Amino acid sequence: MLSFFLETNAPLETVLSTSVQTWGVLAFVGYISTLIAFAIWGKLLKSYSAAVVTPFALLIPVVGLVTSSLMLNESLTRDEILGAVLILLGLVFCVAGKKSFILIAKYRGAK
């Protein structure tokens, strides 16, 4: 709501001049894709425990970064790449649990 008033000098004219295509895309992203995402999420929660499914929600910002980079040619900053790598490492440790620590210990012991 703040964006509506603070990012333009004429917020009402901006809304009124928005194209039908823009409203359609907004409706798709706001409703259709959200509905599909929650349906998939519900199906996963029906099949697996929340402890197994929930960590994968961490992938949402990573998928957003990668998608914007590939589809919109946006360049990723060093901090964004580092953040994505940290999220992925956290996910690996969360999902793999003790197995990941055992593998690291074996790797260090092999040196």
Protein architecture, described:
This protein has 111 residues and is mostly helical. It has helices at 2-6, 11-16, 20-47, 50-53, 59-72, 78-96, 98-110. Helix 5 (59-72) crosses helix 6 (78-96). The longest helix has 28 residues, at 20-47. The chain is elongated, with a radius of gyration of 20 Å. The N and C termini lie far apart (56 Å). The mean pLDDT is 86.
Q: What is shown here, in short?
A:
The protein has 111 residues and is mainly α. It has seven helices and no strands.
Please outline the major beta sheet: none
Count of helical stretches: 7
Structural category is mainly alpha
Helix/strand order: HHHHHHH
Mean pLDDT: 86
Determine the oligomeric state from the structure: single chain
Task: List the topology elements.
Layout: H1 2-6, H2 11-16, H3 20-47, H4 50-53, H5 59-72, H6 78-96, H7 98-110
Helix pairs in contact: 5-6
